[in-house]
């Protein structure tokens, strides 16, 4: 099963992708996570990507497509994957189709997770991530038992560098301008399903599973 998760920053793509991994047994591929790992490792690629990420702009297609090509070729992705945060513009979407065609593969379904604008803002400003295991929290909606500490592994929680107000509004605008057109792109291919991303995490997962008919 090859799935694209579409949705604004803060729509819950990462949370749902992690749950789908358990459910479907295929890996999550998040270009945001791959880029953040490259930045943390201070690799040449990470150094190139950092300025765009800090500004809330898209990292160049060359960099992101190179990462995707490498990741999709790995053994665990042979039977499928869940793309989270990729593709992010039309050029990436067509490049992905070409890349998959070369491998005799295809996207099965694009799930658009729809969340009202006001809710996105609160989700992004309240978001915290565990530095050790990657677990996600929100100080408004799903706080950890102890402030700043992961319930699962005891790791320290942090706020992403780009989850500040100025960068958030830029990221939301970039989404509207560059990523939203992909909804139509996948609709034209007959692959799109839109689900509401409001409500309980497990209920949203149920909607996605239903839309995938698995
Ligand atoms: P995310 O974690 O998906 O919200 O991504 C965080 C940041 O990484 C974005 O604001 C972009 O700067 C960069 N990024 C992630 N995925 C992509 C992509 N597919 N194309 C370009 N930039 C990306």
TrEMBL record:
Return one Gene Ontology term, BP aspect. Answer: AMP salvage
Residues binding ATP are 10-15, 127, 199
The subcellular localization recorded is: Cytoplasm
Q: Which UniProt keywords apply?
A: ATP-binding, Cytoplasm, Kinase, Metal-binding, Nucleotide biosynthesis, Nucleotide-binding, Transferase, Zinc
Q: What is known of its domains?
A: Consists of three domains, a large central CORE domain and two small peripheral domains, NMPbind and LID, which undergo movements during catalysis. The LID domain closes over the site of phosphoryl transfer upon ATP binding. Assembling and dissambling the active center during each catalytic cycle provides an effective means to prevent ATP hydrolysis. Some bacteria have evolved a zinc-coordinating structure that stabilizes the LID domain.
Q: Which NCBIfam families match?
A: adk, PRK00279.1-2, PRK00279.1-3, PRK14527.1
Q: What family name appears in the similarity comment?
A: Belongs to the adenylate kinase family.
Instruction: Name it.
Output: Adenylate kinase
Species the sequence originates in: Candidatus Macondimonas diazotrophica
Q: Which gene encodes it?
A: adk
């Amino acid at each position: 099963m090859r799935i694209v998760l579409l949705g604004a920053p803060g729509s819950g793509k990462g949370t749902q992708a992690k749950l789908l991994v358990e459910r479907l047994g295929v890996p999550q591929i998040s270009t945001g996570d791959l880029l953040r790992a490259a930045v943390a490792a201070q690799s040449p690629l990470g150094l190139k990507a950092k300025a765009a990420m800090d500004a809330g702009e898209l990292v160049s297609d060359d960099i992101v497509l190179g990462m995707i090509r490498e990741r999709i070729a790995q053994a665990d992705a042979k039977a499928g994957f869940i793309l989270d945060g990729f593709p992010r513009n039309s050029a990436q979407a067509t490049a992905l189709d070409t890349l998959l065609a070369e491998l005799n593969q295809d996207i099965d379904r694009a799930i658009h997770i729809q969340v009202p604008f006001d809710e996105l803002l609160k989700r992004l400003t309240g978001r915290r991530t565990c530095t050790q295991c990657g677990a996600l929290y929100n100080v408004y909606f799903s706080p950890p038992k102890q402030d700043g500490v992961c319930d699962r592994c005891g790791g320290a929680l942090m706020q992403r560098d780009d989850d500040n107000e100025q960068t958030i509004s830029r990221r939301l605008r970039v989404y509207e301008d560059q990523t939203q057109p992909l909804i139509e792109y996948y609709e034209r291919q007959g692959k799109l399903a839109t689900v509401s991303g409001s409500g309980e995490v497990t209920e949203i997962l149920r909607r996605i599973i239903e839309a995938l008919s698995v």
